[in-house]
Amino acid sequence: MTKQKQTALNSYFTVKQYKLYDWVNINLKKDKLIPEKHQDPIENTEKSKIVSKGHDNIYSLMKPVCPYCNSKKYVKHGFNQKLILIKGMKPFKIRLQRYKCKNCDGYYQTQLDKILKQNSTYNNEIKEYPSIINALQRISLRNISKIIELDWNKRPSPQSIKNWLSKTIQNRNNDNKTDYSGYYNYDEQYVKINGK
């Protein structure tokens, strides 16, 4: 049995280096990444144009504009934390930069509309999941929440699931518009003469 010499200190620092530089956008080999590394939740084309990710998962606007008065004069005013749920990963928190407009004194923050609605913890993928489960098999709302907990590590309330189901059904009904040809057919017609 041959023993291979390996310096523990060197391997320890490489793991620590990944932890320290976890927020930097560097293309590293996937097999060398530590398990705590999570994907950037904003993986779309709008990221480079609108939102940028900084240190400690703080997301800020590239060119902030006040939604109330369209002013470009602002002051950074702290941040709000938001819980992100991604399938197969533990829930993690990100920070959304808040701004105060110098012109109208209005407050606004970075929006992640592609991923999450403004006052929502759950993304659209999770919200559409109960309708898929319900289409395959009719089960209770509590059991649907247990299934979601297995996949996303967070259990939504049965009332939330009921709201999601009704909203997805309503959206599907709105999408089903029928196109009519303009020709109408009828079988019989009765004409009353003198009220008879």
Could you outline the blueprint of secondary structure elements for this entry?
Blueprint: H1 8-20, H2 46-49, E1 51-53, E2 58-61, E3 74-84, E4 92-101, E5 107-109, H3 124-136, H4 141-152, H5 158-175
Parallel strand pairs: 2-4
Antiparallel strand pairs: 1-2, 3-4, 4-5
Helix pairs in contact: 3-4, 3-5, 4-5
Give a quick summary of the entry.
The protein has helices at 8-20, 46-49, 124-136, 141-152, 158-175; strands spanning 51-53, 58-61, 74-84, 92-101, 107-109. By secondary structure, it is of the alpha+beta class.
Keyphrases for this structure?
single chain; 196 residues; alpha+beta; five-stranded mixed sheet; 5 helices; 5 strands; 16% strand; flat
Could you characterize the architecture of this molecule?
The protein has 196 residues and is of the alpha+beta class. Among the domains are: 36-109, no CATH class; 124-174. The chain has helices at residues 8-20, 46-49, 124-136, 141-152, 158-175; strands at 51-53, 58-61, 74-84, 92-101, 107-109. Strands 1, 2, 3, 4 and 5 form a five-stranded mixed beta sheet that branches. It is flat, with a radius of gyration of 27 Å. Residues 6-24, 28-39 and 44-49 have low confidence and may be disordered.
